[in-house]
Specification:
The complex is a heterodimer. Chain A is an alpha+beta fold. Chain A is built from four helices and eight strands, in the order ααββαββββββα. The chains are: A alpha+beta, B mainly alpha.
Chain lengths: ~260, ~50
């Protein structure tokens, strides 16, 4: 009788649910929950965390290049007054052959929001699009900024800095500014098109009509569609409205914004 | 699995909660800094171009 009490206490302790109970199903369940949490965490990292970090670095890299060009232009100009709009002449077309990954222009679309400026580099591989200081790629087979024909570029819609995240918000007449070492090209957004990823005809000098000789100077933005999917491509076309040399500075509408990039 | 972790942690409940939060923070930091960039590199790339 005196021995049965401690025994009963031991029994209560072992069957009372406080002892660790490791079952295969329990561990499997915890592993599955952990896997689910990890996948959600990865998506959060890819779509927000890493996206925000890359967007910040890409836009400050573009600001740096833009203000360098502005300062070079100012230094080259010296004491001579800036040219008047009548003296701008036809758009200068840079004939340089750039290697893959070389940045040669800066894109700025006010509709895409503050800090949407991005470097444009030659080539549209992941080395350009997923880069921390580039982000927008130029299709090498297409024309140069300001050239008669089609200046076609690509960027991510979401993640990796999303250089064209707000592309679907473009409205008729929205400015698409392209800056090179030579000056500023102002394109105006005209229309959208939604195509399959194989529709390379949108890159033709006259989109969809490779048989025609171009007369317009257009810009073509390509990104993926719908948002968070790669099933389709969204295409935004713009037409060159004006050009001004670096010596004339940034276009008046964005000059105050551009002036803050150097600081 | 996690039950065992909880029992291994020392101290009263409030201290264990702090320790668990610290552990979670460390794991998330390691994931964001090293694991996810590596995973991203081996996943299928996201294509945005026409060709």
């Amino acid at each position: 009788m005196s021995e049965s009490q401690p025994e009963a206490r031991r029994d209560r302790r072992s069957s009372g649910g406080r002892r660790p109970r490791v079952s295969v199903v329990g561990v499997l369940g915890e592993l599955l929950l952990t896997a689910g949490a990890l996948i959600l965490l990865f998506l959060g990292w890819q779509l927000w965390w890493n996206d925000a970090i890359m967007a910040g670095q890409q836009s400050s890299a573009a600001s740096e290049r833009s203000s360098e060009w502005q300062q070079e232009a100012l230094a080259a100009q010296g004491e001579t007054p800036p040219p008047a709009p009548a003296d701008y002449g036809p758009p200068v077309v840079d004939a340089t052959e750039y290697d893959n990954g070389d940045a040669f222009a800066v894109m700025y679309v006010p509709r895409f929001g503050e800090d949407s400026q991005r470097n444009i580099a030659e080539g549209y591989g992941l080395d350009v699009l997923n880069s921390f200081d580039l982000g927008v790629g130029h299709y090498p087979q297409t024309q140069k900024p300001g050239e008669v024909g089609n200046f076609a570029i690509a960027a991510h819609r979401s993640a990796y800095g999303g250089g064209m995240h707000e592309i679907e918000q473009l409205q008729l007449g929205d400015a698409i500014y392209i800056q090179t070492k030579d000056g500023w090209y102002t394109y105006r957004f005209r229309d959208f098109e939604y195509v399959t990823p194989e529709t390379s005809a949108v890159l033709a000098p006259v989109p969809h009509r490779p048989d025609l000789a171009p007369t317009d100077r257009i810009v073509t933005l390509t990104s993926c569609n719908p948002l968070l999917s790669t099933a389709e491509r969204i295409i935004a076309y713009g037409v060159l409205e004006s050009w001004q040399p670096s010596a004339a500075g940034a276009p008046a509408e964005i000059a105050p914004v551009v002036a803050t990039w150097g600081s | 699995m996690y039950g065992a972790l909880w029992r291994v942690l020392p101290g009263p409940v409030w201290l264990r909660i702090i320790l668990v939060l610290l552990l979670v923070a460390a794991v998330v930091f390691a994931l964001f800094t090293w694991v996810f960039p590596w995973v991203d590199g081996i996943l299928n790339p996201i294509n945005v171009t026409v060709e």
